[in-house]
Design brief:
With about 450 residues, this protein is an alpha/beta fold. It has 16 helices and 16 strands. The chain binds one RNA strand of 76 nucleotides through helix 1, helix 5, strand 10, helix 7 and strand 13.
RNA sequence: GGCGCCGUACCCAAGUGGCUAAGGGAGAGGUCUGCAAAACCUUUAUUCAGCGGUUCGAUUCCGCUCGGCGCCUCCA
C-alpha cells in the first residue's frame, strides 16, 4: 500500500515521504510574530501543520516538531525606515516590548489549545537564541558568504548559486522590474543581498552586543539558527505560509546551506491563504478576525478547526459566516453519531474502507476528501479512528454527551413528564426551555423522553 | 516590470482524459412528536467562467479572452 506522499515546493510535485531516520520525522514550522493576536488565517496554517504531525504519527513516525516565536521586532525593510511593529504595538498598549511579546505569546498558546493543536516538542523564542544567531553569522563570514558594512552584515547572494531554486526566481527579471525587492538600500552590494545583523539603529529597542557592534538580528537568521540547533543541519520537513517562499525561506536556505554545506530541507510544505471578502486576511488590514471573535459569536473553536477541513491546505479557503455555520452544523451532526450503530460489520469491509480513507489522507493530506469519505461511509468506528488526525475530540465529546444526567436535571425531566401526562403543554414547554437553557436537549420519542447533554 | 494562483450547484468545496462530477451546509418534501428540536429518509449541477485547439472522447491537456486574487516590503 502506498505510504505518505507530500507536495514539495522544491520539486513542485507530490513526492513519497521518506524521513532520514525511519522512526522519527523532524519538522520545523515558522511560528507567530507576537506583536498582536493571531487571526484565524494564521491559525489555519497551524491547524494544517498539526494535521501533518498527526498524519506522520498515524504513519508510524514519531514527530519532532519545532516552532519559533518571533519576538524580536523587525523593521519594514532592510533600510532604517518604516516602523518596528513590536515598538508600535508596545506604544499602542502602554507596555514595553518584552511584555508585549509575552502577552501575545500567551494568547497564541491559548488559541492553539482551543483548536486542539498539539504542542510542538520545542517552542523557541528568537530572543533566547541570539548567541546561536551570532555564531551562525560568524560562520558565514568565515566561509566568505557574508560581508560587513557600516550598517549591517549582509549575506552575499552572489556567492550562493542556488539562491533562486526554491522560489524559481527570475533574478534578472526582478532586477528589471519595478518591485520593492530591486531597490538598492543601505550599504549592501547587491539588491538581492539581505541583512544578517543590523548595527547602528538607535530607534530599535531590542539590542544585543555582537562582534560587529550593538544591534539585532535580521529576520531570517533565527529560523536557520534555531532549526539547526534543535533538528540538525538537514530537516525532513519545513512548513510555513506561501508568502514565505520567495523571501524568507529562500534566504533561510542560503544561510543554512551556506553555513553547513548540507541540504537544509528535504520537503518544503506551504499552506495557502484564508480569504475573507475575496482577499487575503492580513494582520495589518481591517479584515482581521480572531478566534475569540468567533467564540464570542457562539462558535465552538473546533467548528473553526472543522471549517479548515473544508478545503485542501494548498487551496485558498474563503471564509464566510455562512460557511462557518455550515461547518458547525456539520460537526454537530458528527457529534450526534451513535457508535453502537455501525453500518460496517465485516472486518474485511472495514479494512477496505479504512485503506480508502487512509489513502486520501496520505495523498498530500487531502483532508476534505477524507472527510467526504468518512461522511459517505458513515462508520463511527472509522470516524473515531481517524479523529487521531482530525482532532475533533470525538471520543471525549461523545462521552460528555452520554454521561449520566445529574439528579437536578432528571428531576426537571420527571416534572415535565408528569406535566405531559396531564397534557399541560405550556408547563411542559416551559420545562423544556429550562432544560435547553441548562445545556440539555430533550426528545420525546416512542420509547419515552430522552435527554442528552448538548456538546456543541 | 517579474513570478504565480484561482474561476465546479444558493454557500463552503473535493475530484477525474471516458463509470451516476465527492462531502458538508442551506432550501424543498417526508418519518417521528401534543408541538418542537435533534436525528433519519428522499430531493437539489445533462454540467464544471467563455471561446477555440489536441483527442475516438475534456470539466480534467494546450492556447486565447473575461473575471478575481497573491508574492516580489512585515506577513500564515
Amino acid at each position: 500500500m502506498a505510504g505518505l506522499r507530500l507536495y514539495n515546493t522544491l520539486t513542485r510535485s507530490v513526492d513519497e515521504f521518506i524521513p532520514q531516520d525511519p522512526q522519527r520525522a523532524g519538522m520545523y514550522c515558522c511560528g507567530p510574530t507576537v506583536y498582536n493576536y493571531a487571526h484565524i488565517g494564521n491559525l489555519r496554517t497551524y491547524v494544517f501543520e498539526d494535521t501533518l504531525r498527526r498524519t506522520l504519527r498515524l504513519n508510524g513516525y514519531t514527530p519532532f516538531h519545532v516552532m519559533n516565536i518571533t519576538d524580536v521586532g523587525h523593521l519594514e525593510s532592510d533600510a532604517d525606515e518604516g516602523e518596528d511593529k513590536m515598538v508600535k504595538g508596545a506604544r499602542r498598549e502602554g507596555l514595553d516590548v518584552w511584555q508585549l511579546a509575552r502577552k501575545y505569546e500567551t494568547a497564541w498558546l491559548a488559541d492553539m489549545a482551543l483548536l486542539n493543536i498539539e504542542r510542538p516538542e520545542v517552542i523557541c523564542r528568537a530572543t533566547e537564541h541570539i548567541d546561536d544567531m551570532v555564531a551562525l553569522v560568524e560562520r558565514l563570514l568565515e566561509r566568505g558568504l557574508a560581508y560587513v558594512t557600516s550598517d549591517a552584515v549582509y549575506f552575499d547572494t552572489g556567492r550562493f548559486p542556488r539562491y533562486a531554486d526554491l522560489a524559481r526566481l527570475d533574478l534578472h527579471g526582478l532586477q528589471a522590474g519595478a518591485g520593492g525587492r530591486v531597490s538598492q538600500q543601505g550599504a549592501k552590494r547587491h539588491p538581492n543581498d539581505f541583512a544578517l545583523w543590523f548595527m547602528g539603529r538607535p530607534r530599535h529597542i531590542m539590542q544585543w552586543d555582537s562582534p560587529w557592534g550593538r544591534g539585532y538580528p535580521g529576520w531570517h537568521i533565527e529560523c536557520s539558527a534555531m532549526s539547526m540547533k534543535y533538528l540538525g543541519a538537514t530537516i525532513d520537513i519545513h512548513c510555513g505560509g506561501v508568502d514565505h517562499i520567495q523571501v524568507h525561506h529562500t534566504n533561510e536556505i542560503a544561510q543554512s546551506e551556506g553555513a553547513t554545506g548540507q541540504p537544509f530541507v528535504r520537503y518544503w510544505l506551504h499552506g495557502q491563504w484564508l480569504l475573507i471578502d475575496s482577499e487575503k486576511m492580513s494582520k495589518s488590514g481591517e479584515n482581521f478576525l480572531t478566534l475569540k471573535t468567533l467564540c464570542d459569536r457562539g462558535y465552538d473553536p473546533l467548528a473553526y478547526r472543522f471549517f479548515c477541513f473544508q478545503a485542501h491546505y494548498r487551496s485558498e479557503l474563503r471564509f464566510t459566516w455562512e460557511a462557518l455555520d455550515a461547518a458547525q452544523q456539520g460537526l454537530r451532526r458528527i457529534y450526534s453519531m451513535d457508535p453502537s450503530d455501525d453500518p460496517i460489520k465485516e472486518p474485511a469491509e472495514r479494512a477496505d474502507a479504512r485503506a480508502e480513507v487512509l489513502d486520501s489522507l496520505n495523498n498530500d493530506l487531502n483532508i476534505p476528501q477524507m472527510v467526504g469519505l468518512l461522511n459517505r461511509i458513515g462508520s463511527p468506528a472509522l470516524w473515531l479512528e481517524f479523529d487521531a488526525v482530525l482532532g475533533l475530540d470525538l471520543a471525549a465529546r461523545l462521552a460528555q454527551r452520554d454521561a449520566d444526567v445529574p439528579q437536578e436535571i432528571q428531576n426537571i425531566v420527571d416534572q415535565r413528564n408528569e406535566a405531559r401526562k396531564r397534557r399541560d403543554w405550556s408547563e411542559s414547554d416551559r420545562l423544556r426551555d429550562e432544560l435547553t437553557a441548562m445545556g440539555y436537549d430533550v426528545a420525546d420519542t416512542p420509547r419515552g423522553t430522552e435527554i442528552r447533554k448538548r456538546v456543541i
